[in-house]
Amino acid sequence: MEHALTELRRFFRAALVVPVERDHQESDRAFRRRRIVACVTLAIGVVVNAWALRLAPGDDVFYVGTVLLALVWAGGAFLSGPLHLGRAHTRSGTTPSHAIVQSLVLGLLLLGLFLLGAVVVARIPLLRGPVDGLLDHARFGSLAIVAVITAMNGVAEELFYRGALFAAVGRRHAVLVTTIAYAAVIVPAGVPLLVLAAALVGVVVGLQRRVTGGILGPIVTHLTWSLGMLFLLPQVLAAAG
Known about the structure:
The protein is mainly alpha-helical. 76% of the residues lie in helices and 0% in strands.
């Protein structure tokens, strides 16, 4: 048991605490450009997101709105400046590698945590109602299309929030600022639990970004969590309710 706890501590320290060495310095001019592009993109994204969230489940325009939102996030990210994939610590402690395995584990841990929470939510109508309303987009539409759009938006969000915006904020408060921005954009959905989810996921992928210096880890973690929730959350709610 003690050995397992030690390994767990080592994993979280390597994945979320100790940064990998890198040199991503850029000129003052490039940094100012990144900040301007990030701010403009965030403003546009807030408007598009608020509009898309008001669309009724089953409305085909919802697909258009969510794809447009993904294009806004991704477009702003690429226009802001260079984006880095990042590197992760390995067990050997020698040559860093891409953060794929670490990120899959973190995504699965987040998924398990949220599905356990869903068992409680399923028994509280005040909390379950807004969640069911959000899932109606998948129930009344094509699940395959919703899954593709979910993946697109997950990648686009990480390109922007943990790529462009994270770099634009600077080093000191990047995790805090990007997490607050990410959660705040979700507020118009009117689902408090979704805002909480965005905050928790935002902290984890933000710490990943700080450690790895890139977007690959956050993307893998985000997709593992979001696609898992899309397919498993309705089943858990139905079984627990």
